[in-house]
Fold each of these.
Amino acid sequence: MKRKIAILGATGSVGKSTLDLVERHPERFEVVAVTAGSNASALAENARRTGAKLAVVADRSRLAELEALLAGTSCTAAAGEAALIEAASGEAELVIAAIVGCAGLRPVMAAVDAGKTVALANKEALVTAGELMTRAARESGATLLPIDSEHNAIFQCLAGNRIDDVVRIILTASGGPFRTASAETIAAATPAQACAHPNWSMGAKISVDSATMMNKGLELIEAYYLFGLPSERIDVLVHPQSVVHSLVEFVDGSVLAQLGAPDMRIPIAYALGWPERIETPAQRLDLAAIARLDFEAADLRRFPALRLAREALEAGGAAPIMLNAANEAAVAGFLAGRLRFPQIAQCVEQALSHDDYAAPRSIDDVLEIDRATRSRVEALMTERCA
Ligand code: NDP
């Protein structure tokens, strides 16, 4: 029997890698739904290639275009949030959550509430609603499988082990394009430089997050919710080669690591095949050719975003939501040329100083804090540009 899957964010970097794997294993998977933000033509092409029954574009103004592109096929075109939720909670058994940002939150929660197996790339959804999402998963019986390479590595290292035997987990970080750059060079970074990741090819938002190291900060929070360890037992270690994807230390002093080429198809394949493994075309690891693996501590002075994320994790409540919302808004501002690179972390720090919110009790609360924080950052950016 083929496994029915829905790919949320099918037109993005993770979405494309997922489609590549699915097409290499036609005997295993049937794509029933694909979604995109606004790119109707890429979405229609995905739907035609996979034979999906439902194609959803979030931006309603692109529905007519999507309908025209899918004319003559048996695929239904739909638009808007309710349709995204339908794609996430409908026929699929396995939902690939690869929308970027908090925009993915309601669809991911719909999949969790429906008890699906959710392969999660969309870290912002877990960062902003970790408590609510993990509780909903326990109640519905949903399984969360991490796609983020670090969390996927930890998940692999934990297989066959007890979480009670874990002393700490160590998230590796490439250090991004500015790992060795001076504070002055970092201050003058352009969007093109920030997006030029040395090891991974990814969407623009996560590439900027890697350059600020906010990505590792979001991953700290993601690890906290996925594995239930407190902040002081989640370490970050810079590892420029991106070969060791993360490590787990156990009570007996053993440290397990997962290694592989920096190719997202490896962690995605693990989630697609789980609990089995499926073949990928990823380059095989040649450790003799790599010759050395380096590790160093993260520099919180040049990369303050990592410190801010840890503070938000430890503050709890609304802080991770504010951190994420301010970061999303500031990264968009940086990519649009409205902010300089160091101002991303400054905007986040200012947003975090607003501590009027109670801990969210519903997704509506999360989205309200997200909206209010974005509008504060928008005002800050307008002030700075005035
Ligand atoms: P991309 O920017 O490449 O793709 C994002 C996807 O989300 C696209 O399909 C896009 O559609 C869709 N989308 C954008 N905005 C909306 C919206 N408002 N509503 C619905 N859909 C929307 O991102 P990535 O693939 O790089 O990243 C996706 C997620 O995976 C992120 O959370 C990222 O942090 C995480 N991740 C990514 C990794 C990577 O290697 N890329 C590694 C680990 C985690 P459209 O094409 O129409 O804009």
Note: The mean pLDDT is 97.
Amino acid sequence: MSTTGRFAPTPSGPLHFGSLVAALASYCQARSQQGRWLLRIEDVDTPRVVRGSTDSILQDLEAFGFEWDGEVLYQSNQFERYQYYLDKLFADGRAYACECSRRSLREYGVESGILGQIYPGLCRDKQLAGDQLSIRLNTSRAGQIEFDDRVYAGQSMNLEVEVGDFVLKRVDGIFAYHLAVVVDDYLQQVDEIVRGADLLENTALHLYLQDCLGFPRPDYLHLPLVNNADGVKLSKQTGATALKPQQAVQQLTAALRPLGQWQDEVKEFSTPAELLQYAVAHWDLDAIPANSNGFENQVVNEEPGV
Ligand code: GLU
């Protein structure tokens, strides 16, 4: 069976260099195994969607030579499916309604962990129903979640202690990323997930949700993060510059560096498609460095206007 990978950008702004690295790596990893590569627009958090960014993402991907299989999946078209699986978790006694707000939890003195407040299950047994409630996953039976990342190797997390009962649907009715991503990857039959290491800690949550829903666990491969000159992860929030389609070949070449691919070779390509073809043919998974501090991208740092 051939593999299925995906690229799943959030349309909260245009693609930047860090997203290009994720697109490139997920593409090469899937295509080098003759696998499918899907595109999913993660617009589940509708208030965060920035008008026009979906179009600009699609245009940039095309300009950079990426070809995806099938239709683009939009999370905003998937709400009924998320509700279906949420109901299933409820019926199985895995999910419950919660009336606690962030503020009330602060006042209660709950601890904070890597992913925010560690919710200690205060509403687990209250059987709450009605409006103004969030829905959480009960992690009391999760124990230690372990997995082998293909770049970052052995990972282990005690979900209840380190994260707590996390939100599946917010009080404002928005489905959480964790539920959406797990349901979509399952329905799209994604079996190898390639994404930035900023999501490494989220993976234990996804694995436990997959277990609760009876979904198979995909393989995970997290990518070293790309930092800006100040050592801060490149993201829309830290002001990463948008991609420049007219410099697609140079920016794709630069994106291979943090992935450790053919660093000493100097190759000239006339089109992005030609470069991608070469990148797929020479893709070396073992060359990806598992650096936790991020890789300093010199093109972003040094070339004005890139
Ligand atoms: N939508 C997420 C992002 O743009 C990626 C989610 C994932 O790959 O699982 O950062």
Note: The longest helix spans residues 17-31.
